[in-house]
Amino acid sequence: MVPIIFGPLRTRETPRQSRAVTRVHVILNATAALLAENRLQDLTTTAIATRAEVPVSSIYRYFPTLDDVLLELYSQTANELRAKLFASLDDVHAHTTWRDRLRAVLDVQRSYLARHPYYRPLLLHFATKRGPLAIEDDDHDDLVRFLCNRWERGADGFQGGDPVVVAKTTIQISLAMEDLVAAQADRRSSRPYSQELTKVLEHYLAQYLSD
Question: Which of the residues 1, 23, 27, 182 has an alpha carbon 20 to 30 A from that of 192?
Fold first, then answer.
């Protein structure tokens, strides 16, 4: 399992001392390890405490409920994935056309799911809790703004549409792709869906972008 790269924590009681931060990281790493090995339905705070070798009270100090632990882990991993997506989108030297960048971004998305087995159950868990429009989640605002800023400047040969509408639609399709791929049992069964949805997204963007 690839190690988690932690950003700022959003726990109930934000740890300030390095020892406290380390303990929260240990708790989240233990949660990730358990999710990689077991069903989310079988996860308990007691199991996490045992795996992390900390008292259960240490978990409740920062996370009032098990869902809060899962949300923190999901936020950390989703932020890491978004950073990788931004890097691919912005790398115009390695990926010279918008089609190249699209394929690079989708490769990053697929690779992340494969290399972080705990992300799949987290993604599916929180997908059931959001509204019918995933794009309405605040977590995706940065990606929408990034694409809007590019396309408002005419980058990627953008023309013929509203950059805001096209950016939001693009992210909505991408999130639907991620959910469907994550719902498959393994990489082999997810590949056909990934390939078909890539065609959908590429065909849509071809209406507005040019190399």
Answer: 1
The CA-based angle 189-5-201, given to 5 degrees, is: 40
Overall pTM surpassing 0.90 (yes/no)? no
Taking only the tens place, the pLDDT of each residue in 34-45 is 999 999 999 999
